[in-house]
Structure prediction request, 218 residues.
Amino acid sequence: MRPGRGLRIAGGVLLASGVLLLGGGLVLRAGYPAHRVPTESMRPTYEPGDMLYAEPVEPGEVRRGDVVLVSVPEWGLGEGLAVKRVIGVGGDRVRADDRQVYVNGRPLAEPYLAGGDPVGGVVFDVRVPEGRLFLLGDNRGNSLDSRFHQNESPGGTVPVGAVRERATDSPGGSYAALAGAGTGVVTLLVGFGLALAEWLTGRSARRAGRPPAPYVVG
Prediction:
């Protein structure tokens, strides 16, 4: 076998594997993003600066109680994603008196409030249209949510298509993405190293086989 041929083959295999691992990691990372929570609107569930892990979700998969990331620039929140909890879905009647939130006439159990105020001083009574969602922050005293936009859209609701992602307690997808991308980078570096070693080995072999320069007497 020609000197360095084995190194070239191994390097090529590692380079190809590294590209696949890195590409797969980046694709998986896009499918399982992570975000820093920007505000206090979801306290105590998420504190400002907490890492929130998310997963892709289809509009038809959104359920009451889900924490979702929605695009609602019409709420004056800019082009970023707002983090809110789904309280009502299409067909629900959502209302609040000065003490309690009710969904379809039943008091809403909200253990995630951890003793916090379920109403935040704002009473409402909304029938959620089909294909729309009524959203609240868990920190009812400091959250810009559906309660404050009832004059701008039906009951302050947002279209279910505005949901981009759903929060998940498991960072597994994000960790797998980072592991795949990291392994891909390492594999690429090793592949480049072997390719360089093959080139240096071939160069040395070529020099060793070169005939000596003729001796000329001047």
